[in-house]
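Run log // design_07
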């Protein structure tokens, strides 16, 4: 991954952390992650969710959700997996941000079983 991609990813993670901080408190932060081949933690910590964030021209929400679920299984984490993907566009035009989760996670939120 090139430096520009890492910089965009870091900026997106920081933006999501700042956005969620008023909802979940001051402990919400971008996680410090190891790139040495092991499983990673959530991209943003301090929320009740295991967040996997992707930012780029063609992020794959399904693959991001699968990555989060694999990391959850490997770490024994019990938080629901959620993928947050941002499609970047040229010339700083507005970009779409989509949230992807399993249907049972969505229904648990609707029923008040999850925050």
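design_07 sequence
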């Amino acid at each position: 991954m090139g430096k520009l991609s890492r910089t965009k990813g870091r900026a997106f993670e920081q933006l999501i952390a700042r956005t969620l901080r008023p909802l979940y408190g001051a402990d919400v932060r971008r996680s410090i992650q190891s790139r040495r081949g092991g499983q990673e933690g959530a991209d943003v910590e301090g929320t009740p969710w295991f967040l996997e964030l992707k930012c780029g021209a063609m992020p794959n929400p399904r693959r991001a959700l699968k990555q989060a679920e694999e990391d959850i299984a490997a770490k024994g984490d019990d938080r629901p997996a959620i993928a947050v993907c941002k499609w970047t566009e040229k010339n700083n035009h507005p970009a779409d941000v989509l949230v992807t989760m399993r249907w049972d996670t969505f229904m648990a939120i609707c029923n008040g079983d999850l925050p």
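The mean pLDDT is 89.
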